Amino acid sequence: MKMSKLMRSRLFIALVIVIGALVLVLPQVLAHKMLLGSDSIFHYNRFYEAAMQLKEGNFHHFITMYSFQQSGRIINALYGPVVAYFNGALLLVGKTWFNYQILSDIAVYLLAGGSMYALLRKCKLRVSYSLGLALFYLTTYAVQYWTLSQAFSGWAAALLPLCLLPLVTFIVEKRVNVLELALCTALMFQIHFLTSLFVVMAYLPAFIYAFIKTPERIKLLQHMALAIGLFFLLTTNIWAGLVEVYFGNTVLQPFINKNIYGTAVSLSVYRLSNWLAPFGIVILGGLQIILLLVFWKKISTLNKIVSLEALLFLILSSRLLPWKWLSQTFEFVNILQFPFRFFVPYTVLLLMSLGLFATELKINGWVVIGALAVLVTCSFVQTIQALEQSLAMWDEPEEFMYQKNTTYFTDDTQQIKQAFFSKDLALGLYYVQKSTPDYLPLYTKLTDQDEIHGYRHYRKQVIMQEQKFTKTATKDALVYQWDAAEAKEIIVPAIGYKNTKVVLNGKTLTDAQFGHTRIGALKLRQERGHNRLEISYIPAKTTVVFLVLPTFVWLGCLGIVIKRKGYSREDDAKFNYLSAR
């Protein structure tokens, strides 16, 4: 096999991306230190729940049986259940939290590199350009956000490029590929709801362009309707979970960021945001604007739309907008929480745009390859340095992890750290507990004085009380047992929703026989002596059907994709004709 052909082979491309991923995790492997960011404990509880359900074969879609203080809360059903089980499987393979962290980082890097490469190749970029930009993407903060802070949007960023494939189809082919559009949109919806909204925002201008330009508008609309219908079939598990929980309960939403302006990207050179790392992205952003202004008339429609969308997302992510006024005037804006999240689609669209500029302006290939080599090298060095700085925090006695709203059940810092290297996966989550109240059922409206997000209530009613009870996860129910010196009403650190079934000492309680605190903890009358409480969740029968349905729809769609090998041979030749250059 000739060297040029070898370098264009899929095996070689995959190998380079794998090497890039391994290089980025190597500093942590060598340092043997953990990174515990702001979202780590919350997501690690989610993944531990999924891991234990897989290990024990004890599947409960709604209530938590093993994690979150074994409180019976509903989390995963409302927040990326499929990805939670994937991470749970990684955790079982890794056996320790440290090993899991390495494996999950590698997984994110491989997905990010592969999906960016696929998107750029669909844009007809050369293999070398696509590979170089894909490697650079691994170092951007959009992807690094998972590594450094365990923010789940990092998983969304990893697959966002793949989910933008329909955007290219809209503009270049002026049609709707039903299967492609439905699968890409559903994939992101299964991972991260907010990022799926960004995907739709990116689709919209491209679809409008296709609608205006195509002579087959009726067919376009018909195919769009089919794609939307298929999307709902692929995501009924998410919709069923939302309807099941939200229609019967008043659910506490993730916290409202009162400083939304402060979390927008600052473009000032005196106050560069983390999202502007590596610094090469600032240079690329400035270069794109210059190229767009100078060569507007010479570039393709695809490049024009992609470039303008990139600039739109950049503006949305920045302090150029009056975010404080917007959040106070329009309540729905608070769903965003952090404007910097718009920087994720900006990053992807920026790299698309620059790759298209390099191709369409017919810049000397060796010059572009040389520039990419320098860019990737510098960005890897900067990213590794940032990683080493973050890892150094592990040696700090008080700042080794994010501590806000966190309760420690030992004063021995070394004991906490060692727990995350232990094969007892529950140990670290016992020593470090965070009072995140997301998705708790509200029975009394919380006031600002009550800390509207319920952190204090959850800590007091659940975290600080749960050690008084012995808890066991069985096939049928989550069982609480305790001994009481007297008969009286108590608060049990178990969360009850509308369809939560409560059995106390063998008797199923009616709604009138027990109560709830304002965040849903059960209030019931214990008996003197030994007490046994069983809680389970009984969803509607239709909910169960819709939870199972997407599995068969996904398998059917993926079977079609495999049969077609993603694209027909004719399409493959059409989109990859630059490979030989």
TrEMBL record:
Keywords: Membrane, Transmembrane, Transmembrane helix. This is Integral membrane protein. The keyword Transmembrane helix applies. The keyword Membrane applies. The chain crosses the membrane at residues 100-120, 126-145, 191-212, 224-247, 275-296, 308-326, 338-358, 365-387, 543-562. It comes from the Bacteria. It comes from Ligilactobacillus animalis.
